[in-house]
Amino acid sequence: MLATLLGHLAELVPDDSANVMLLEGEARLSLRARRGYERGADPARPPAIGSVVGLFSLDKAEAGFFTEEHRGLAESLARHAACSVQNARLYARERAAGFYDPITGEGDSGDPARLLHRTLVL
Q: How far apart are CA 9 and CA 7, in angstroms?
């Protein structure tokens, strides 16, 4: 999904290289996808602060290339990407704990048909 994000981002905002880092734990950013970097070159990892889900970085050799319009497009995509990452993490947690019952707010490790029936009956 993150490599696809970088591909779509490149269609909106031309760049020479780009990367996506996700927050893992409380203060560790992990490089999860990258495009356009020379083999062996790693992008710098800034410190994670606030309620960050992750970040993506766009690079261009030409100084001053990026405009406010580029920034707006990138930020718009970032909001959607953050929501997707959070949903994927929530889904993974719920799958690990069993099925989630939205009515009771409880997990259920039983079969999904039974959960659907309980949800519809309640």
A: 5
What's the pLDDT band for 105 if we cut at 50, 70, 90? low
What residues form DSSP beta bridges with 106? 101
Pairwise CA distance, residues 58 & 74, whole Å: 9
Residues whose CB falls within 8 Å of the CB of residue 22, separated by 6 or more in sequence, listed in order? 2, 29, 30, 32, 53, 54, 85
In whole angstroms, give the CA distance from residue 10 to residue 7: 5
Q: Model pTM?
A: 0.60
67-100 residues labelled b (16+ CB within 10 A) or e (exposed): eeebeeebeebbeebbeebeeeeeeeeeeeeebb
In whole angstroms, give the CA distance from residue 100 to residue 110: 10
CA distance 120 to 71: 45
Catalogue all structural domains in the chain, each as residue range(s) with its CATH number: 2-97 (3.30.450.40)
